[in-house]
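ok trying this again, last paste got cut off
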Amino acid sequence: MKPKSLLFLLMVVAATFQVAATDLFHLKDFTIQRGDTALVEILLENEAEYTAFQSDLYFPEGLTIVPQSVALTDRKASDHMIVVNHIVDGGWRLMSYSLGVNAYSGNSGTLVTFQVVASEDLTIPAVVVQKRTRFTEVSGREVSLGDAACNVSCQGDVNVDGAATIADVTSLINYLLTGNDSAVGVGFSDLNEDNKVSIADVTALISLLLKG
């Protein structure tokens, strides 16, 4: 192949598939109890207008997606569809498209939701990995939004040992009294989600434990 022909071919490939460095499609961190179900969100932060996507999700052992629960939010157009399928390497592929080539609305917020179920054997904390995410722009150009991951924690697991118990109450009280965060996961300590850690979180944690 002549050098000029090769250069032209590379330019065509680059024009039809490029990396979108500024846009993000990522799972939101979530909490779950062993034996329980949780709602998971995938957020799209975008400057470009997109009409379709595919993304592969990989769950840790003990955490299972509920395929029938996968849904698009009101950011979809009226003819957008979404399907999910178990792929050969153990992941779950999400695919969404519009028959009328309509774009998803907005530039920020949740685009996809689904439920997951945690077995009694799930090791917490855990990570869900997102790979091979590709979006299609209105123009038809395909872009890659890169790999991502989210953290899975146990609600009330202040000391990050994988379970919510009375030991977490002790750890949280000690943290409030001393300010020593060596024995707590500060990010898991804001139980009432008011963006601060206080005695109100101790009350919320005790209430959580009492409810089982």
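PB: full thing came through this time. The chain is about 20% helix and 40% strand.
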